[in-house]
Amino acid sequence: TVQHETHGFQTEVKQLLQLMIHSLYSNKEIFLRELVSNAADAADKLRFKALSDDSLFEGNGELSVRVSVDKEAGTLSIKDNGIGMNKEDIIKNLGTIAKSGTKDFFSQLSGDQAKDSQLIGQFGVGFYSAFIVADKVTVNSRVAGAGPDQGVQWISEGEGDFAVADIEKADRGTEIILHIKEEEKEFLDDWRLRSIITKYSDHISIPVEFFKEAVEESEGPDGEKIPGTEAAWESVNKATALWTRDKSDISKEEYTEFYKHVSHDYAEPLTWSHNKVEGKTEYTSLLYIPSKAPFDLWNREQSSGLKLYVQRVFIMDDAEQFMPTYLRFVKGLLDSNDLPLNVSREILQDNKITQAIRQGCTKRVLGMLEKMAKKDAETYQSFYNEFGNVLKEGPAEDFANKEKIAALLRFASTNNENNEQTVSLADYISRMPEGQDKIYYVTADSYQAARTSPHLEVFRKKGIEVLLLGERIDEWLMSHLTEFDGKTMQSAAGANVDLSDLDDDDTKKAQEEAEKAVEGVLERAKKSLGDKVEEVKFTHRLTDSPACIVATDDGMTTQMAKLMQSAGQ
Ligand code: ADP
Ligand code: MG
Predict the structure, then answer these.
(1) Is the distance from CB of 446 to CB of 470 less than 8 angstroms?
(2) How far apart are the CA of 315 and the centre of ligand 1, in A?
(3) Ligand 1 atom with minimal separation from the 128 CA
(4) Is there an atom of ligand 1 within 6 Å of 85 CB?
(5) Which portions of this protein are annotated as coiled-coil regions (predicted)?
(6) Which of 206, 201, 223 is nearest to 34 (CA)?
(7) pTM of the full structure
């Protein structure tokens, strides 16, 4: 008899299960995509491991997923012959959520179903989605290369706990048996299942098979013989790696589904770029720009990077060496012809091929964004609203592409009524009046603080546009972005902001007279402030305020000083 031991789910898993069952009612069929996707991942992992140990195939290297139904028992089975799991794996993988930032994610949940179902879409439900349609799930698994007595069984009803037991399992891999809920019986229908698989799994690189019963030989209407077919497993998907196919043969839907598979994202991608690069380095890249930022975009441990394949063999997830940090939102994959199959993260780290591919991919992504900005400003804006603040790390990180990145940035500005970041540096320059040769900006703690900065007074008076930078990252950005299109970026709070070129003679004369009228004030101010200040000067920058503090141009801006202070410097 099989002895089960009971384990409790991690709190977050319980929350996820609860939430999922209540909020994913409109799109239940996705569970099949998740389970087939996991089976394909398991096949990829086995192929990778078998590169160094062929015996793991146990004499059968034909990897596939098989879907079958037992109508009487009311069960649906999804069975793979991939890498498999041992007891330890299964307790960890199917009892906890490994993603970083999960706790924070769940603390954001509001109890409002509509809002929460949005959030859960960003999070991804993975294996646990089985419980959308099943009231009991059994998983039988055995690791490739282990003996038949090394099997493990996992059973749960999706409530507080699950049970595991040692079992015998002759064949390697994982079988997931869903005990379908009474009201979800449609998922026991062969035709329904096939159509879901076709919709979601054409791009999956291993065959997804259904069993076809034998057909007896028969006779046609004119007495001609129609040959029978033997019972067999038949594949319902194309089962070729999508990126190896010709661009012109791949539909938008296939690209979209493939994105969901590699990114574990539920939303559609904004755009993508699929390229076969030939020449000194040969590789295929398929790069996607997501439409929504992941919940953990600002989490330092969040996984980023591309899936790496070498000659069509999966090597690793999250190979972050192929994308600069400021493009960490890009998802997709890379298939290299030049890297060795036994490549490791260490080898990738300091490698000429890596560098060449990284440069190529960076160019692709920047090009994709440029094109989007030019052709479809609205979509670009929606991209920017999600990822703009990440892109702002670019000028500091990627010197070679600084100008390109700068052209992609968008800012709030005195030219706009609201705080939306929509103004490009090129827009700004196109509006510069004659005589103005700098791009002016104000940095502050918030958009509101920038908007009401006293430094803006003179610019307002003269009708000069100023970019309003109120994001945390902006100060850092501006310390690395010193010019664009040959024009200096100038803080409006800088001491030597000089707009006098724009003044006419009458104004200049009036200013001289005004200075004379308050002679002596400067001396008194200097005396009472002592060495708290470097200098006290007259200015004609202010219209409503009597005085303001400015930074010397070689010194820190006041905003930077505040940042350093808050960092304990
Ligand atoms: P994800 O696929 O995003 O990692 P899932 O919830 O879908 O998350 O799966 C959790 C983990 O369980 C996987 O990362 C994998 O380690 C393991 N797993 C799930 N299904 C299988 C399977 N068919 N074969 C082997 N391992 C699996
Ligand atoms: Mg998964």
Answers:
(1) yes
(2) 17
(3) 6
(4) yes
(5) none
(6) 201
(7) 0.80
